[in-house]
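Journal club prep, notes for RB
We'll compare a predicted complex against what the paper describes. Inputs for the NAP case:
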Amino acid sequence: MTITLITGANKGLGFETARRLIQEGHSVYLGSRDPKKGRVAAESLGARFVQLDVTSDESVDAAARDIKRRDGHLDVLINNAGIAGHSGILPRDVTAEDVQHVFETNVFGVVRVTHAMLPLLLEAEDPVIVNVASGLGSHAIVNDKSRVESRFVTIAYSSSKSALTMLTIQYAKAFPEIRVNVVDPGYTATDLNSNRGTQNITEGTEAIVSLATIGGDGPTGTFKDRHGVVPW
Ligand code: NAP
């Protein structure tokens, strides 16, 4: 059975990804920083709850030890947990601290979890990592006037997701034995955007589920959405 860990899976895209992968036969560790929310979510899906705050070494290391003890390896890691950062701040008022806050989850959180889970992934036959970025992290898209993403100024969020696309390339190069890809879910109605997203949750999880189930001969180092390749 495919053993899968999804961070930030107590709601939104992570939760729906957990539901769909369980349907596909995966045994899913549903990561949640809040134990109460995580247990309720896991129980509702038949997933296994694991407490996981991506900003905490202690929490992430404990989650890795838990998975090692129960399964000895990890087939699929989905780095999904993410935050938008404070809304309503004028660009001129954005501080280093504001950006650091967002990077702490969206960038350093991914490195922390990936680093902790690597030994478990390397024990798997065909390990896979899916990083959940955004079209707002694509240099090409935010400079394309025909794209809605070009109309937003999101200093912390966009730069964090852009860093995540580069992390994906670097991890893909460093670990050719792991399929490491990054996705743009597309603008999807979740709490992240106060449910203003125009896609539903099924559309929003298409690319994540697709890349989580690619297997050993699938691509690595790619950036995709549900329609295909995303320009960097
Ligand atoms: P969401 O509904 O707000 O869910 C975000 C999840 O991340 C929640 O489970 C949240 O937990 C968790 N999280 C936040 N900080 C965490 C931390 N330090 N440790 C562990 N978990 C943490 O948002 P979503 O739309 O599903 O977002 C999922 C991913 O998709 C994010 O990376 C986001 O940037 C990306 N994305 C979303 C869209 C979109 O339109 N929705 C578009 C592009 C990319 P709590 O419940 O405890 O807060």
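Talking point for the session: DSSP finds eight helices and eight strands in the chain.
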